[in-house]
Amino acid sequence: MINRYKHANIPVFIPHLGCPNQCVFCNQRTISGVERFQPEKLDGIIEDALATLGDRDAEIAFFGGSFTGIGYEYMCDLLERANRYIRDGRVVSIRVSTRPDYIDDKILEALVRYGVRTVELGIQSVSDRVLSASKRCHTFRDIERACASVNGAGLSLVGQMMIGLPSACADDEMDTARFIADAGASAARIYPTVVFRDTELMYMAESGEYIPLSLSDAVERSANALGILTSRGVEVIRIGLCSSENLRSDDTYFAGPNHPAIGELVEGELFFRLLRDKLRELSPSENSVVSVSVPRGAVSKAAGHGGINRKRLCDEFRISKMIFTESGALSGYSAAVEIRRI
Ligand code: SF4
Fold it and tell me: Which CATH number describes the domain made up of 268-340?
């Protein structure tokens, strides 16, 4: 199941800083909720976060833009300031997010030197058709090369991918999930595409050139990717953008699957498929009572949002009742199903 950071994350959002691109879906100021990064505030951000973390291991995370594209000297300056917290033992590591075409040997050498352990790459799609339609301004070859370079530098790779980009189909997204697993990523993030105001995607949606995914399609297609990644041992650490006022505001949100619990919906869909497959094998007789054991903390996901899985499965298999319990012997997306005849 989605396992948020094992240690505490200190996010430092750097919207659009140094990014000359304008991907059709991107309005980084909206997504991060930060209009402009003020470098002089870096120490304050870190100190404030450290004061609330207690004994947990802390990691400074430069998110929100294309960190390695901000200019080499400036990047090194921010990393040096973050590295001081590693040297004094208050922070264990640094992570950065960036684009595949902003990775080269010189940048990787600096990341390693300053204590970066993890690079999150905005892969988004492995289809050149989708990358082009999204105006990512790089190709799949750049993605392949960047993943190999990150691995070669001994850094942990996290793959970020999107669902429902312009011209993308479900097969493209499953290929992307497979590639992230093949590339040796330790973790992944799955982002269903949300249309923000003041983005090219908004104008594409207004003109009918782009049709935003419905919530149910986004959940189905995200569950496809989640299933592939988790079955290959890639930990999915996030599904959907972080909830914030900005994302729910009509001033910033235009269209698309922006449900505040979309991660739970996607995990619930994966449990639904698992339970449906198991029930098909077991073929319960009509009006059976079915016991379902799931990992600790997974009962609400397995039963589905508002009990939707329970209802769908009871209807499909004509069973009278499903009883969900937790089992410490199970983990991940797994379940033990037993039919109790009445
Ligand atoms: S590269 Fe990243 S920051 Fe730049 S426009 Fe694209 S998504 Fe936004």
Answer: 3.30.2320
